[in-house]
Amino acid sequence: MAFCTKCGAQIDDNASFCPSCGANQQNGGFGQPQTSGKSDNDKLMGVLAYFGLLVLIPIFAAKDSVFARYHSNQGLILFIANVIASIVSGVLSLIPFVGIAISILLSLACIVLMIIGIVNAAKGEMKPLPVIGSFQLLK
User: Which residues of 47-73 are buried (b: 16+ CB within 10 A; e: fewer)?
Assistant: First the structure.
């Protein structure tokens, strides 16, 4: 399994050009595409994107990385969803029992999405988060 040296898309092992972005895949004159996946710096930026306001670090520090930008987008959407969930939880907590139960479920959902995003970033994968992963705020 090989990955594009520019956009990170999965390509054939013997591909000379990426079918997604058209980038030349010549790696040091050997004619082999980059098979190592993502760099450790990209993975670190991807993981940082899921820790609340720390999403600002990869947004500004890794603007040129497609991988870090993708996870920054996912992390920003998750952060906004978490803020909305907190506001809704605050309002619902005024309702005894049912409101508190819904508040707990919303908090757990945000934590689960955060863990899924961190695991995906640490593995070097660009998978969208369930439910909120289809939204795009950053280009």
Answer: bbbbeeeebebbbeebeebbbbbbbbb
Buried/exposed code over 81-116 (b: 16+ C-beta within 10 A; e: otherwise): bbeebeeebeeeeeeeeebeebbeebeebbeebbeb
Burial (CB count <10 Å: 0-12, 13-18, 19+), residue 14: exposed
Q: From 117, 11, 103, select the one nearest 71 (Cα to Cα).
A: 117
- Residue 1 C-alpha from the chain's centroid: 21
pLDDT tens string 34-46: 334 578 889 999 9
What span, in angstroms and rounded, lies between the C-alpha atoms of 122 and 43? 5
Contact 53, 79 (CB under 8 A): yes
Spell out the domain ranges in the chain: 1-37, 38-139
- C-alpha span between 88 and 107 (Å, rounded): 10
Q: Is the overall model pTM greater than 0.85, yes or no?
A: no
Give the H/E segment covering residue 120. helix 98-123
DSSP letter at 64? T
